[in-house]
Amino acid sequence: MTGPGFRVLYDERMIQGRLNALADDIARAMAPDLIAIAILKGSFIFAADLIRALHARGLSPHVDFMTLSSYGTATQSSGTVTLLRDAEIDVRGQQVLLLDDILDSGRTLAFASRHLADKGAATVKTCVLLDKYAAKGNALAKADFAAFACPDDFVVGYGMDYAHMYRELPFVAVLDQKGVRD
Ligand code: 5GP
Ligand code: MG
Q1: pLDDT (0 to 100) of residue 141
Q2: Among 55, 60, 80, which residue's Cα sits nearest to residue 69?
Q3: Are 158 and 152 in contact (CB under 8 A)?
Q4: What ranges in the chain are assigned the alpha helix state H?
Q5: Cβ 77 under 6 angstroms from ligand 1
Q6: How many of the other CB atoms lie within 10 Å of CB of 142?
Q7: Structure confidence by residue, pLDDT tens digits, 27-68
Q8: Does the beta carbon of 146 sit less than 6 angstroms from any atom of ligand 1?
Q9: I need a labelling partner for 58 at 20 to 30 A (CA). Which of 24, 74, 136, 157 fits?
Q10: For residue 111, which ligand has an atom nearest its CA?
Q11: Is 141 exposed, middle or buried (0-12, 13-18, 19+ CB in 10 A)?
């Protein structure tokens, strides 16, 4: 492959192993008829794999998506979260499992949780592939479920991009920073 190199943090096998453990935890903690709402775009592959792992444990989640954007430079979010597209499923009185790729500052999950609570969700639990909380320790929201603790590096792959690239990679990797970070 040409272009920047990758340092793989989590390969396909590690990810599937952790998703199975996460699905076990979720199956124990939540009702089988939960609503899974994935935040686009970064969580689409994570969500696709996780909801199939939930199915394998007897859960039958309804699935929807919301599109959020936090504007900023390519590798730093600005802190302003905007709702680009809302979920369509009626969440009133329901148990919602909110899925996102990364918990970084926590602004995205705080915004989405508040939005769903305002729309009448009975409970909103958060679930992320990668949690940077341990690395940074100052998040505005917490993850009820997380597959991996993540170092405070810019990561790509498994749905996550840098300038629309690398979502298709089957692994999570730190991008070689030379000439990339702005
Ligand atoms: P927060 O709102 O928690 O600061 O940021 C979460 C969002 O920022 C994630 O949903 C993700 O889209 C993006 N983000 C945070 N860190 C990274 C990263 O290392 N790589 C990529 N590709 N996106 C990130
Ligand atoms: Mg995101």
Answers
A1: 86
A2: 80
A3: no
A4: 12-29, 44-56, 107-118, 133-136
A5: yes
A6: 15
A7: 999 988 899 999 999 999 999 999 999 999 999 999 999 999
A8: no
A9: 157
A10: 1
A11: buried
Tell me the per-residue pLDDT of 94-107, one tens digit each, with 9 for 90 and over. 999 999 999 999 99
Q: Supply the pLDDT for residue 134.
A: 74
pLDDT of residue 140: 86
Residue 152 has pLDDT above 80, yes or no: yes
Question: Is residue 172 within 6 Å of ligand 1 at its C-beta?
Answer: no
pLDDT for the residue numbered 131: 96
Q: Where are the domains of the chain?
A: 11-151
d(CA 113, CA 107): 10
CA of 104 to the centre of ligand 1 (A): 6
Residue to probe by mutation, ligand 1, list 77, 80, 133, most atoms within 8 Å of CB: 77
